Amino acid sequence: KLGDGHRVSTRGRCRKLEVCLNDFTTSVDAYVLELGDLDMILGVAWLQRFGKVTFDWEKMTISFLWEGKRVELHGQFFTTKEVSTNNISHAPMDSLHSLLEEELVPTNEVQELTEVQKQELNELLSKFKGVFEENTGLPPKREINHTIELQKDAGPVSVRPDR
Known about the structure:
Elements: E1 13-21, E2 24-31, H1 44-48, E3 53-56, E4 61-66, E5 69-76, H2 85-89, E6 96-97, H3 115-127
Parallel strand pairs: 5-6
Antiparallel strand pairs: 1-2, 3-4, 4-5
């Protein structure tokens, strides 16, 4: 589950993957995900290793102590007008991308599938064609009809919801 609540399936895990940010090099256990134009997401689990981490939102920096040395990582500023898939994908790998989801303007860009992807999609749709069929009526009658039988003259239940 990602920080924004979306669930994605992983394509594997890379243990002790070496990551270089500016002059700082570290290793991370990384999950392989489809991230679109992003190279990598470094989340809370990664930041926890450094203990006390300072964020300066005005200067777009993250700083922490690592092996007795002060490390400062600099983000890259984008305005709403500057944000596009083109300039995000060509941004330097050694910078931290800091984009607020609320500021992103949706585009009508459509990425075409490759021939291999089209073939795989068609095979998948054929294999599970019953799942994708339109409903033509009500579900079939079942042998067992599950019901909740109410007690005669019983009032509404007054139970506090769980917290």
